[in-house]
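Data follows
____________
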Amino acid sequence: MAFNLGGNTYHPISVDFITSSYRIVGKVLVTYSGMMGIMTDTNSSVVEVHDAQLARLDMPNRLADRFEIARLVKKQIVAICLSRREDMGSVGFNSYSPSPTYPLRLVTASYEIIGNLEWAGRFDVSAIMAKGTRDFITLYNARIAATLVPTMHVESPVMLVNRNLVDLFALSVQENMDEEV
């Protein structure tokens, strides 16, 4: 189903948002630029989520509330989980050759995130985390888990992670998130 609003054609995609204290599941109307287009739009500091279902992190399987439309502040979103690579938008398809893949572990104040980063050219953490680039890092085959609530975890083929909220950035050498140190 597509909608024509203001000359642009929009279609709904299913999205799972993770904030510091809530998980919000719903639909976002996007154009060909997908979710990345919504998140890089400097004309808006919020993202509209339709048919939004809200769950608290400490009770991730219990519905706290439901909204026809919820508006999330972009800079407060920790991660965005997408079910398909295409939902990220056309920005994900502008490379003709496959980029090297790097397994990463990212840590925020409340989450541990593992996933694969596709990065063309020399791997440079400063370039990935530098100001002036997109605020969200794209990880593939990713998993996010709440550090204080072990039952709260989400696996996603594509995850956009807010680089401004990352405390630790490391190339991962272990596959299992729960191994003992």
In short: Residues 6 and 166 are 36 Å apart (CA to CA). The chain has two domains: 3-79, 86-171.
